[in-house]
């Protein structure tokens, strides 16, 4: 679909978004570009009919006069089981149809598992007119650090976005600022849990429905399903990583292993980056996130999944991808993943956020070859 065709839709529409039912019901005049002429020639011509005949529509958008929009797969674009309007300004800018992501269709689930309390937190919001915010936090040493990020991190990001267009830079600065703010909060609060409270943070910003930017510290993850395959957007910050281990050692810290074979910083923390954990900041544990920017493909990208380690330690990324692809909608998918992690033996809190994209429902891979060599050891960050 060319930019010229999208521009014609813009001139025919009355609002900023054009829904699948809201596209102009009219025959289009021949367009000057070759690809547009080909598109025009593919539109069925109006046929002569009698009152007893089934009336055929003169456009592709309601070909059987059923009142239901033709699925986008009829255009050879995608097969989306979730009906979403098209973001017209973004579609014109990028030269291809881009579906809107509605928060009402995002799936979220968080189960306590075998823990005494749920220290996981998740969040999603329409942060600005063109940016949507998604986040998961997995607290340790109490829920205070996760609660603080849940309450304030979005505000830091929103303030920075007003003056900075680079979303990777925005997220990096926001993580560092919320870490400093948490330190002051713990120092000033008489009932604060102390300097060993901390949290992972995995945040995704979706701008214009197509630009996805992810930032993460700790071992919560972000994964994109592309063409039915899991594409990892984050890498865990653990002492097993050579670059992370070297930074800890250069800063005067050390790595130990507990009886379960888990590596820990200074015998306490099973991650090398986090928000909080101020007693370990002097030995190389940092709050600076690693970031990644990716341009989505509405034709190939089905969903984004943000998960905490209660899910990640028991199910690999492709397993998560396969299970979600079998689900009818993201809400069912989030519930199924969180429950399945517990059924497989996870004792930690299990949290997931599933964000549907343009190709939702297109890649229904039936591969269910899950690993039977799972570790049924309780995941944790403490030695």
TrEMBL record:
The keyword Nucleotide-binding does not apply. One of its GO terms (cellular component) is mitochondrial matrix. Keywords: Hydrolase, Manganese, Metal-binding, Mitochondrion, Protein phosphatase, Transit peptide. Its cofactor is Mn(2+). PANTHER family: PROTEIN PHOSPHATASE (PTHR47992). Residues 51-65 have a biased composition (Basic and acidic residues). It comes from Hippocampus comes. Its EC number is 3.1.3.16. Residues 105-357 form the PPM-type phosphatase domain. Belongs to the PP2C family. InterPro entries: PP2C, PP2C_BS, PPM-type-like_dom_sf, PPM-type_phosphatase-like_dom. GO terms for molecular function: metal ion binding; protein serine/threonine phosphatase activity. Gene3D superfamilies: PPM-type phosphatase domain (3.60.40.10). The keyword tRNA-binding does not apply. SMART domains: PP2Cc. This is protein-serine/threonine phosphatase. It holds the Pfam family PP2C. One of its GO terms (biological process) is pancreas development. It is found in: Mitochondrion matrix. Residues 48-68 are annotated as: Disordered. Its main location: mitochondrion.
């Amino acid at each position: 679909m060319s930019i010229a065709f999208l521009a014609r839709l813009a001139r025919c529409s009355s609002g900023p978004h054009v829904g699948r039912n809201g596209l102009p019901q009219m025959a289009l005049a021949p367009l000057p570009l070759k690809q547009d002429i080909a598109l025009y020639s593919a539109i069925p011509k109006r046929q002569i009919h009698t009152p007893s005949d089934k009336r055929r529509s003169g456009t592709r958008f309601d070909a059987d006069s059923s009142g239901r929009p033709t699925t986008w797969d009829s255009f050879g674009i995608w097969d989306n089981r979730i009906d979403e309007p098209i973001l017209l300004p973004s579609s014109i800018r990028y030269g291809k149809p881009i579906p809107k992501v509605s928060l009402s269709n995002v799936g979220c689930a968080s189960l306590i598992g075998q823990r005494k309390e749920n220290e996981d937190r998740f969040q999603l919001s329409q942060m600005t007119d063109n940016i949507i915010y998604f986040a998961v936090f997995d607290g340790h040493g109490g829920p205070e650090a996760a609660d603080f990020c849940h309450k304030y991190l979005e505000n830091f990001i929103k303030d920075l976005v007003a003056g900075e267009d680079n979303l990777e830079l925005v997220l990096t600065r926001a993580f560092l600022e919320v870490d400093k703010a948490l330190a002051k909060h713990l120092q000033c609060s008489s009932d604060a849990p102390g300097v060993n409270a901390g949290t992972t943070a995995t945040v995704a910003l979706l701008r214009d429905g197509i630009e996805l930017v992810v930032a993460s510290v700790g071992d919560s993850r972000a994964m994109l399903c592309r063409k039915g395959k899991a594409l990892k957007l984050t890498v865990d910050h653990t002492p097993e990583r050579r670059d992370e281990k070297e930074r800890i050692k250069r800063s005067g810290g050390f790595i130990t292993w507990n009886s379960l074979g888990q590596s820990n910083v200074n015998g306490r923390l099973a991650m090398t980056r986090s928000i909080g954990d101020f007693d370990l900041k002097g030995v190389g544990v940092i709050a600076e996130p690693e970031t990644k920017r990716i341009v989505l493909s509405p034709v190939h990208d089905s969903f984004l999944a943000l998960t905490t380690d209660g899910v990640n330690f028991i199910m690999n990324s492709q397993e998560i991808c396969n299970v979600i692809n079998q689900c009818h909608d993201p809400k069912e998918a989030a519930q199924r993943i969180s429950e399945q992690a517990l059924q497989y033996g996870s004792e930690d809190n299990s949290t997931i956020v599933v964000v549907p994209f343009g190709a939702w429902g297109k890649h229904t891979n039936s591969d269910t070859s899950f690993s039977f060599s799972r570790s049924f050891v309780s995941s944790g960050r403490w030695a």
